[in-house]
UniProtKB/TrEMBL annotation:
Domain Acyl-CoA dehydrogenase/oxidase C-terminal: 226-376
Gene3D superfamilies associated with the record: Acyl-CoA dehydrogenase/oxidase, N-terminal domain, Butyryl-CoA Dehydrogenase, subunit A, domain 2, Butyryl-CoA Dehydrogenase, subunit A, domain 3
SUPFAM superfamilies, per the entry: Acyl-CoA dehydrogenase C-terminal domain-like, Acyl-CoA dehydrogenase NM domain-like
Record protein name field: Acyl-CoA dehydrogenase family protein
Reported cofactor(s): FAD
Amino acid sequence: MTDTSLRTSVLATVDRFCREHVQPAIADMERTADFPYELYRQAGELGLFRIDVPEEFGGIGMDHVLPLLAAERIARTSPAFAVTFANCADVLTPIIAKAAPHIAQSIVPQVAEGSKIPCISMSEPLAGSDVSAMRTRATKVDGGYRLNGRKMWCTNGSVGDVFVVFAKTDPDAGSRGISAFLVEYGVAGFERGRDEPLTGLRGNPTSELVFDDVFVPETHRLGAENEGFKIAMLTLDSARLNAAGMALGTATAALEIARIYALQRQQFGKPIFQHQGLQFLIAELAAEIEMSKAVWLKGLDALGRGDAKETTALASVAKLLCTEMAVRVTTECVQIMGANGLSKENSAERLMRDSRAFQIFDGTPQIQRLLIARHLVRDGLMIF
């Protein structure tokens, strides 16, 4: 099977999985906000977490682009489960690249099959965009490190099994004094805090983590000491393209719901789609989706070619455009549907709530503008 036919086959499997399993699970996720363990297990059985995992770890060994395409498709049905799916690849990247071989061999296959839920934890109460402000400390001791501190906003933190945790090993060195560690839940001193009651993404818990003198063996450090910031950067471009793609999928789903509604809803003797004011609005929203998608696909192309410089620039542009577009599109789609758009009987209001998160994580719009401006100062216009 060629790479193209395999990609088509995988995406067809993703679409079927969304129809048969994700869609029926949404009502319970919205009602309870509980993590969908059964849905996660089904995704693992289908091999969805294996897509870009190297074959030596039991994966399919495809490139890093296919999981991003899959996450966009899942987000058309459930942005919340799309984040859970995308988080898996984001966590595996630094483990595969930087973990000791025997550690990676013991953990990656279990994550790839869906039997272990992975998490990545960097943010803290006083350290979000300003990573160098983190206060969690990893103090060197005989045979390893003692980890002390508190983390926030950890995706799937309350259900996770294995965590990539970033901590200061040189408190005076800013971002150059951060190291990354692999910590499995269950070790002494590692406790889960509360889940944040977020506006959207129900069923995708965002959690507090507490580390109280947790011993981490030196073998569980990822990469060299004080290399943590560089390790975080390994995943950032793909994570931003992931956020952009999931926002794109969310907006696409919302506009399709509004389009169908506008064709069916009758006012003043004809479908509301035939009223020019509404017709033009829907056309504008469709154009915004297509423009944003073009930039996102250009970023995926750079990622697939391994052009790191181009990928970094386009990842920031795509995240800025796609996430801001998604908030506008989903909000307007609720408006198009009027009171029906506000009803939880329809998906439009859920998609509107979910879309907001994509603007915030992996770098806010303000951070993306800053990064784009830095690129312009250093390298000029992004004409590739």
